[in-house]
Amino acid sequence: MKILFLLLLSTFAIAQPRRVWFDTDIMIGMKDKTPREVDDAIALIMALQHPDKIDLVGISTVAPGQYGYDVTQKLLGWYNRTGRTIPLYRGSETAKDIGTETDASRALAAALRTEKLPILAIGPVTNVATVVKNHPELIPQIEEVVVCAGRTPGLPFKPGLEKLSVGDYNFEMNPDAFRVLFDAGIRVVLSGYECSVYMLLGDTDIDFLNNKHTADQWVYDHLRPWMRFNQQLFGVDGFVPWDTTPLGYLTHPNYFKYYRDIPVRINTRRNDAGAPGDKPYLEVSYDYKDTKWRAVYAYKTLPGFEEILLEDLKRASAQKR
Ligand SMILES: [Ca+2]
């Protein structure tokens, strides 16, 4: 009996949600020449479905300015059923200005002063780099930064039918911000292209969102054009929900395979995504002997995670409430 009680007690202790800071360059629905990425929105909706696993301490936006702030507020209003108010802060507008304090950098620093936190940073990591640069005393308070970036050496980013090569967006928007994190010795988890590329959400996967409820319909109406745009670019039915795998590292870590304690380097060579000249590549290899930088690198999503994603969206769906 006593053993059973202890077992229950330890299970309860393990089941406490992990408190997490969520930093995003969310841009679903932003008016532009082409449809914009939807993956941050999916990651946010998923995160709100697992209050038993993660507790969002705060959310900060990077890059899309007022739009990112407003659309996050809108999605929280629709999909936050956790019973908790999640504060939202505007961060860097340009994603380039490391060191410029913002509401986001001040709030993240204040949060880190009170507790150690992991940071899920699914955009350029400028806000985090600003905190690290301006408040180095807080470095030990950062448990880990989970990002969507990085590659194994020479891996081209060619989704779908491999007709088109794309960049490592979050890294290339601000390579210096990644340098700041690695130089500070912070534990960085890289869960990027290689880990996510074989997940593909197509028409039939998201059809249930096409219902009469305002929230679901709004999401559906912005997933669809993004899907069409991806079909044109990459030749396959669907889109890759990139930012959901770094979230998955925090909510469902057993659904991914990792290279642990792997050396990291920034290598510069010819741009493989069509632009002239050279560009930096964030690369990991156990062969790199001349670098102190280390990361956890997620290289594969195991079967089952895509189903979790779809179940989360279904559970979140306004139709189900
Ligand atoms: Ca993102």
UniProtKB/TrEMBL annotation:
Q: Which Pfam families match?
A: IU_nuc_hydro
Q: Tell me where the signal peptide lies.
A: 1-15
Give the UniProt keywords, A-Z: Glycosidase, Hydrolase, Signal
Q: Which InterPro entries match?
A: Inosine/uridine_hydrolase_dom, IUNH, Ribo_hydro-like
User: What do the Gene Ontology cellular component annotations say?
Assistant: cytosol
Q: Name one GO molecular function term.
A: purine nucleosidase activity
Record GO biological process:
purine nucleoside catabolic process
Q: Domain Inosine/uridine-preferring nucleoside hydrolase: where?
A: 20-270
User: Is the Hydrolase keyword given for this protein?
Assistant: yes
Tell me the domain of life: Bacteria
| Cited SUPFAM superfamilies | Nucleoside hydrolase (SSF53590)
Q: What is this protein called?
A: Nucleoside hydrolase
Which species does this protein come from? Spirosoma montaniterrae
